[in-house]
Amino acid sequence: HYLESSKKSAPVNPDKRRQEEASNINRSLYSLGSVIEKLSSAGAKAHIPWRDSKLTRLLQDSLGGNCKATIMVTLRTEDENIDECQTTLRFAQRAKAVKTKVKDNTVTVLDSGKLVKEVEALRSQLNTSNMMVRQLQDERDQRDADEDAKLQQVLATHESSFNKTLVSGSFKKDRSGSPTK
Q1: Are 32 and 51 in contact (CB under 8 A)?
Q2: How far apart are CA 65 and CA 99, in angstroms?
Q3: Is residue 41 part of a domain?
Q4: CA atoms of 23 and 25, how far apart (whole Å)
Q5: Deepest of 3, 71, 131, 150, by most Cβ within 10 A of its Cβ?
């Protein structure tokens, strides 16, 4: 069984697909060359175009000094490839000139002490906030209970007044027999 969309789609020209792939590869390699050139000439002072391609984004940590990187180039020695060899060797020369300082990503003992203190401070803040929430809830519950008691008292007063009025017979009856005041 074929998927519905595969029946309707036109066959892809393999040569066109190769051209697109080659174009994408060349664009990524050009971006990599730009990044290497910026790193070798200005170091970290200049803007490095990491986001110009997926390749340079993937290599950002390696080339930016967050880890060690090795760049290996290969050459074809045939006469028709001399221009490509020269370009590749110039790229390798620029890549060799890149100097990075490896950044240590570990947490030191001093830093861990700071983190422990920060965690303790945050726990204290959380406990204080929880106590305030409980206090506000208690105040709200007390206020609700007070309001309920007042309403019950008003209701009892009105019921008592109504009952007294009924007992005293202060209501008059109209022609239909309904009580009126």
Answers
A1: no
A2: 9
A3: yes
A4: 5
A5: 71
